[in-house]
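Ligand-bound model needed. flavin mononucleotide.
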Amino acid sequence: MTHVIAQGTFDLLHPGHVHYLRDAAAFGDRLTVIVARRENVTHKDPPILPNRQRRDVVAAIDVVDDARVGHPEDIFVPIEELDPDVIALGHDQHHDETAIADELARRGIDCEVRRASPRDPEYEGELLSTGRIIDRILAERGDR
Ligand SMILES: Cc1cc2nc3c(=O)[nH]c(=O)nc-3n(C[C@H](O)[C@H](O)[C@H](O)COP(=O)(O)O)c2cc1C
Ligand SMILES: Nc1ncnc2c1ncn2[C@@H]1O[C@H](COP(=O)(O)OP(=O)(O)OP(=O)(O)O)[C@@H](O)[C@H]1O
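Prediction:
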């Protein structure tokens, strides 16, 4: 059984998220998703929705076997607990594959690091980015 881990913020789900999770699930037989804690989302605006709500909605996607809110301080603690075979990085995730692989080796975790593929819009107006969904909400309803 090949156990795959995917991770991300997953605020305001869209088909880009679904594509990533399907891609990650196809890397193995079991998919666990680690949902980033609000306080750890520092590379962009913090999520609108609370940790548990983002976890609960991700867990409801059919290809996801389990979803959990991540560790507050050390992102490798859940990895040590889950002992996965593959970490599926999102196509645009800022994490460096080599740095993650080096840390896995240092902790004695035998796990491959792979990149998932991007999904581009398929029809006019399809929004595949939480940031762009929020921008459109502000543009169309921001005066309320
Ligand atoms: C292997 C791995 C494990 C992670 N584990 C955690 C974690 O335990 N807790 C957490 O808050 N974030 C965790 N993250 C998420 C990062 O902290 C970061 O916020 C996340 O990658 C944001 O992704 P996004 O820009 O795709 O939303 C993890 C990321 C990676 C690559
Ligand atoms: N269009 C997309 N195609 C493939 N993967 C995607 C797409 N959009 C998001 N993902 C993946 O989903 C995971 C979680 O993404 P995240 O929660 O950062 O959403 P986002 O829509 O990219 O957010 P933002 O617009 O705020 O940057 C990441 O691994 C990311 O690469």
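Helices lie at 15-26, 51-59, 76-82, 97-106, 130-141.
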